[in-house]
Design goal:
By secondary structure, the chain is of the alpha/beta class. About 45% of the residues lie in helices and about 15% in strands. Bound molecules: nicotinamide-adenine-dinucleotide. Nicotinamide-adenine-dinucleotide (NAD) binds next to α10.
């Protein structure tokens, strides 16, 4: 079984991006800029944002974090986004989710200029992805896609099962696999027989949030299995896939942690650089 090393793949991607940023700097005499808006003091969000800033600096991006207290008014955030939209030094804008209850997430997402939407959550980018046009692609599914392609460059005709239909993971993952000519089944909490669906799959991507949901006897021999889940349990962090069982069947599997997670931030940097490049045309 191939253990898909997301840490290594992310380090390789960051090294490529670092070179690209250096080339862009010498060509345009400026570097792509990423601005993250962080609202409140949720510990996981603070950790994510710190890691994003560290990685952005590592590849040579200009990085900025704007912090607001939990009590910030929605209007203040929307005005800041407008300001960043027209700031030429800002290539990418990310508002760290989740937001406090009094702030309308959709309003915030839609306020970001789609050409600076490095999360790929703006409806314009969602539409572009599903139409097969160039767009920012949500970072986690993009990371999964790059890991799958490392194992199997030609996905044409493969049967893929995506478990979970969130806007963040399942739906964009489905679009990426469709674009590669996979035959894709998207499953969810109302799917009648999830095990039977998974057993058909050459590729399984699990993005559910239920610890070790996908079992060893759900997986066909030689399937590629990508585990997006991050679940806190009494035994530590586990994924949505039962690692010990599935590793006996699968051709390749991502561990949790150390699989998809590290690719997510690297893909955010990739999206920022792509936004910059599109703005220079
Ligand atoms: P979500 O809660 O938005 O969506 C979960 C999806 O799972 C839903 O579409 C639901 O229909 C489906 N589902 C629920 N129960 C099911 C069942 N019994 N069978 C089949 N499908 C079922 O979750 P999300 O935001 O997509 O996150 C999923 C997981 O991925 C979580 O554990 C989250 O922490 C993790 N995550 C990881 C990363 C990363 O970088 N690795 C990034 C984002 C999210």
């Amino acid at each position: 079984m191939i253990l898909i090393d997301g840490k290594k793949a992310a380090a390789e991607l960051r090294a490529e991006l670092k070179e690209e940023v250096a080339e862009l700097k010498s060509k345009h005499n400026k570097v792509p800029g990423l601005t993250v808006i962080l609202i409140g003091d949720l510990t996981p969000s603070q950790i994510y944002v710190r890691n994003k800033e560290k990685s952005a600096n590592e590849v040579g991006l200009k990085s900025e974090v704007i912090k607001y207290p939990d009590s910030v008014e929605e209007k203040t955030v929307l005005e800041k986004i407008q300001e960043l939209n027209s700031d030429e030094t800002v290539s990418g804008i990310l508002v760290q989710l989740p937001l406090p209850k009094h702030i309308d997430k959709q309003k915030v997402i839609e306020a970001i200029d789609p050409s600076k939407d490095v999360d790929g959550f703006h409806p314009m980018n969602v539409g572009n992805l599903s139409s097969g046009y160039e767009s920012s692609i949500p970072c986690t599914p993009l990371g999964c896609y790059l890991l799958i392609k490392k194992i199997e460059p030609n996905l044409s005709g493969k049967k893929a099962v995506v478990v979970g239909r969130s806007n963040l993971n399942g739906k964009p993952m489905t679009q990426l696999l469709l674009k590669e000519n996979c035959t894709v089944t998207i499953t969810h909490s109302k799917t009648k027989d999830l095990k039977a669906e998974c057993l058909e799959a050459d590729i399984i991507v699990a993005a559910v949030g239920i610890p070790e949901l996908v079992r060893g006897d759900w997986v066909k021999k030689d399937a590629i299995v990508i585990d997006v889940g991050i679940n806190k349990t009494d035994n530590g962090i586990v994924g949505d896939v039962h690692f010990d069982e599935v590793s006996k069947n699968a051709k390749a599997l991502t561990p949790v942690p150390g699989g998809v997670g590290p690719m997510t931030i690297a893909c955010l940097l990739k999206n920022t650089i792509n936004c910059f490049k599109r703005s220079q045309i």
